[in-house]
Design brief:
Layout (H helix, E strand, L loop, with lengths): L8 E4 L5 H11 L3 E6 L13 E3 L5 E5 H5 L4 E5 L5 H12 L3 E4 L13 H7 L4 E6 L14 H7 L2 H4 L18 H25 L4 E5 H8 L1 H10 L16 E5 L4 E5 L3 H10 L14 H6 L1 H12 L4 H10 L4 E3 L3 H4 L3 H5 L3 E6 L3 E6 L23 H9 L3 H9 L4
Parallel strand pairs: 1-2, 1-6, 2-5, 6-7, 7-8
Antiparallel strand pairs: 3-4, 9-10, 10-11, 12-13
Length: 407
């Protein structure tokens, strides 16, 4: 079966979330991704998350965090601090199209593994650096993790309940959104650079991705709302400052999210709620008026929603094409018939765990579908295979490197 990137080889020197997430996307698209890890310990996320259990119910070394973002890769372990290890990585880079790293800015120059050094031996190399604050600027030396970027870009100022409501105050988004966003921007940059290399220049280039930049860019229209209006957006819980009704409503047995996107949907909603007169009320007939008067409108709607169940309202709103959905927890998400139809939960055979669940790649390509060729690797699972096949090292050479703790 054809794969988009079956002709591409990636050297993944990254750790934790953003870099591995980008490399997993490339692996799903068919690239041969070689993950370089520290001997003995590996990627830090091998120590984070829940331990997967085998068929006998016993914990294995494999963790949920590692399993989430390292599918499709081959794992090799190389001691990067050793000169022999640095030389092995340089030799591997000669045979690769892409290198991904997320060391602190300038760190790899100490080992001769920075872009300027590696482009001398492989001018076609697309080299992607992912850092907290980028390769330049007053913060470039700083380390950083997702909550720092959520806070500094203003995301946490937008997230949570208003200060005058119970539990009011800034809140963190419930997952490492800055890492995921940066990883996706990295994939876009890598694919763009590969296309330019192959169609235009014949040369690779350096890509500088900062989580700080990526998270700010991802604020999109919320940042633009401020830039155009000069008004600092306030926390509104599940509601919106510019669209109404666009929030969660309490029903008799749970909460239902309503997302009315235009005036005709609002009139439909009013009909279903038994309040058709609101659809023509001059205070609410246009979205900008509803947004301005939502403190009046929302309590009127909320009183009606409380009288019936989530299922009752959802069935009727769905039939009228009014966007809505229950607020699911993850145990409910994977029971959703649409998720099941789209095959967003898959299972793969794993050498240690047995069978592992995986959240599928959402890309649906008609001619070159996503492939799941390899489960997330065990530490150093492919060291001998990769160094033998790519660098021609025989058993004696591999044994000597192991003896000297280079691999």
């Amino acid at each position: 079966m054809a794969e988009c990137l079956s002709h591409i080889r990636v050297l993944d020197l990254s750790r934790v979330f953003s870099g591995p997430w980008a490399a997993q996307m490339l692996a799903d698209l068919g690239a041969d991704v070689i993950k370089v890890e520290r001997p003995g310990r590996g990627d830090d996320v091998r120590q984070q998350g829940y331990r997967a259990k085998n068929a006998e119910g016993l914990e294995t070394p494999e963790t949920s965090s590692f399993l989430a973002m390292n599918r499709g890769k081959r794992s090799i372990s190389i001691n990067m601090a050793a000169p022999e290890g640095q030389e092995l990585i340089r030799k591997l880079a000669r045979h690769c199209d892409v290198l991904i790293e997320n060391f602190k800015a300038g760190d790899l120059a100490r080992y001769g593994l920075d872009y300027e050094s590696l482009k001398e031996i492989n001018p076609r190399l697309v080299y992607c650096s992912i850092t907290g604050f980028g390769q330049s600027g007053p913060y470039s030396h700083r380390p950083g993790y997702d909550p720092i970027f959520q806070s500094m870009t203003g995301l946490m100022s937008l997230t949570g309940n208003p200060p005058d409501e119970p539990g009011g105050g800034p809140q963190k988004v419930g997952y490492a959104v800055s890492d995921i966003n940066a990883g996706l921007y990295a994939v876009i940059g890598i694919l763009s650079a590969l296309n330019h290399r192959d169609a235009v220049s014949g040369r690779g280039q350096h890509i500088d991705i900062a989580l700080f930049d990526a998270q700010l860019a991802s604020l999109s229209h919320m940042a633009m709302n401020y830039l155009i209006s000069g008004e600092v957006p306030q926390r509104m819980g599940t509601a919106s400052a510019i669209t109404c009704p666009y929030q969660a409503f309490e029903c008799s047995d749970g909460h239902l999210m309503i997302a009315v996107g235009n005036d005709s949907q609002f009139r439909q909603l009013c009909e279903i709620l038994g309040m058709p007169e609101l659809g023509g009320d001059p205070r609410f007939e246009l979205n900008r008026l509803r947004a301005r008067n939502q403190k009046v409108l929302v309590p009127m709607l909320a009183d009606v929603f409380r009288g019936r169940s989530v299922k009752y309202w959802q069935e009727r709103l769905d039939a009228a094409n009014v966007p809505c959905g229950p607020i699911n927890d993850l145990s409910q998400v994977f029971e959703d018939p649409q998720i099941q139809h789209r095959e967003m939960l898959i299972r793969m055979d794993h050498s240690t765990v047995g069978t592992i669940p995986q959240i599928a790649n959402p890309l649906k390509l008609s001619e070159t579908p996503v492939s799941y060729r390899r489960p997330p690797p065990t530490l150093s699972q492919h060291t001998d295979e990769v160094l033998s096949d790519m660098l021609g090292l025989d058993a004696a050479a591999l044994a000597e490197l192991k003896e000297r703790r280079v691999i």
